[in-house]
Design goal:
Diaminopimelate Epimerase, Chain A, domain 1; about 260 residues; about 20% helix; 6 helices; alpha+beta; 2 domains
């Protein structure tokens, strides 16, 4: 029986921008090996696999082309978007994941995700990290997933041309590079590189903002932010801190619907 699959651009209101995610709403159980093959076939940053539990509760897993991951914001946003487009009536959806229960709520054309905060701690840069990025760091930290590198300004973030082969040897999921924004109305900017997980540069990343929100809160005292991710595809996120949780808000656009025949 053919299995439907969609591709959704997340953290954008414009097709062919933001971060593309595959979304597969499973009609029967499938094993992890099959999911990994589908994610490799899709060959985009992440593919989400959903299976219904009850009316508003779903099991959710995320796979890059090479590995299963513990937390993925843009594919969760895409999953909620697909469910509501397909007629799901609940205004809040609950996803059971490797990172606990995550919720998504509709709000005036935006989708709010409730995620755990993943604050960083100061860290010494591992050998080769700054050379692979080609930057001088104002600060280096590490969250439970990633290294975080603060640089002087937005122009430096834009100009980075990483050595992905060297970055892939860093012992972490990936590397976040961030600075204060120079664009009016934007608080901070970032880029994200995860070649060890099969993603040289992720275009618009929800999970990294679970670290960036607490990081910029500590430096500015603010709890609500407008953030831009400065990949070639660009992404826009609104970030709000609530205790040890982070609300990530974004929009999404479906760009493809198809069927898996295998």
């Amino acid at each position: 029986m053919p299995q439907s699959i969609m591709q959704v651009d997340s953290f954008t209101s414009t097709a062919f921008a933001g971060n593309p995610a595959g979304v597969c709403v499973l009609e029967r159980p499938r094993d992890a090996a099959w999911m990994q093959l589908v994610a490799r076939e899709m060959n985009i940053a992440d593919t989400a696999f959903l299976r219904a539990r009850t009316g508003d509760e779903f099991d959710l897993r995320w796979f890059t082309p090479t590995v299963e991951v513990d937390l993925c914001g843009h594919a969760t946003l895409a999953s909620a978007h697909v469910l509501w487009e397909s007629g799901q009536r609940a205004s809040t959806l609950r996803f059971h994941t490797r990172s606990g229960v995550l919720t998504a709520t509709r709000r005036d054309g935006w989708i709010d995700l409730d995620f755990p905060a993943t604050p960083d701690q100061p860290a010494s840069p591992p050998a080769g990290l700054l050379a692979a990025l080609g930057v001088t760091a104002r600060y280096v930290g590490r969250s439970c997933f990633d290294f975080l590198v603060e640089v002087d300004d937005e122009a430096t973030v834009v100009a980075i041309r990483p050595d992905f082969r060297r970055l892939a040897t860093i012992d972490a999921r990936g590397v976040i590079v961030t600075s204060r924004a120079s664009t009016p109305g934007v608080d901070f900017v970032s880029r994200y590189f995860a070649p060890a997980f099969g993603i040289d540069e992720d275009p618009a990343t929800g999970s990294t903002h679970c670290c960036l929100g607490p990081f910029w809160n500590a430096r500015t005292g603010k709890r609500d932010f407008v953030a831009h991710q400065l990949s070639a595809r660009r992404g826009e996120l609104h970030v709000a801190l609530h205790g040890d949780r982070v609300r990530l808000s974004g929009r999404a656009v479906t760009v493809l619907r198809g069927e898996l025949l295998a």
